[in-house]
Amino acid sequence: MPWPFVLFCIKDKASAAIPDTGPSFTRSEVLRNQLFWTMSFAFAASALAVSALVVHMTPLLHDAGLGMAAVAKIVSSIGLGVLGGRIVVGYLIDRFFAPYVAAVLFAATALGCTLLLLSGVSVAPFAGMLMGLSLGAEVDLIAYMTSRYFGMRRYGFVYAVSYSIYAIGASSGPTLAGISFDKTHSYNSVLVGATILLIGAAVAMLRMPRFEEILGGSLVDAIEQTVVRA
């Protein structure tokens, strides 16, 4: 349980307080911000796709004719991907533009879905690892991009709303995949839908502006221009 560490090990020191800097958005301005919704829905789409596939991976492989022992070995690759995703993505976003890292990750997972659809269970371990990479990196990317695009002044609010949208996508994916399978008696439509969602999320990430100054203007100015004024 984490509460003993939070209670006894985390101290609120004035010297460690986060400075009140960053874009001066109100909460209503955040909710009218194009970048906020682009980021949030991109991660929600990827979460919907990945959660559907991860939860249904066992019946998907079993339906393809694999025994439970073989299925267990393949599903374990998802766990390895989750672990690797946090480490690898953390390393990469220190060196490359985070939305581009996210775009490559989503596109690679879409490729894994396509290969699984076209080539069958022979590529399942590779596809499972790519799904695990996305699953392990998404939440970290949301937190990182929230701080970089919106600063720390409204960080708690922005992250809470964005993560809630992500969680809705993650919780909806398995249900929608189950409904699809019940209607079609195949996981092919699930794989196609997941591929489309992941490609859409990758394209959305490629459209995000850079953190640094853009065309001589400040990041704050660039972001504030995306707020839809009432």
Annotate the secondary structure layout.
Layout: H1 3-9, H2 27-31, H3 34-63, H4 68-93, H5 98-119, H6 124-150, H7 155-184, H8 188-206, H9 219-224
Helix pairs in contact: 3-4, 3-6, 3-7, 3-8, 4-6, 5-6, 5-8, 6-7
Describe the protein.
- By secondary structure, the protein is mostly helical.
- It has a single domain (33-208), classed as Up-down Bundle (Growth Hormone, Chain: A), CATH 1.20.1250.
- The protein has nine helices and no strands.
- The chain starts with a helix and ends in a 6-residue tail after the last helix.
Question: Which tags fit this structure?
Answer:
single chain, Growth Hormone, Chain: A, 9 helices, mainly alpha, 230 residues
Ranges where pLDDT stays below 50 over 5 or more residues in a row are 213-218
Query: Average pLDDT value?
Result: 82
CATH H-tier superfamily: MFS general substrate transporter like domains
- Main β-sheet: number of strands, strand sense, barrel status? none
Helical/strand content category: mainly alpha
Termini, distance in Å?
45 Å
Helix/strand order, N-terminal first = HHHHHHHHH
How many distinct beta strands? Answer: 0
CATH architecture tag: Up-down Bundle
Radius of gyration: 20 Å
Number of helices: 9
| Fraction in beta strands | under 5%
Highest-level CATH class = Mainly Alpha
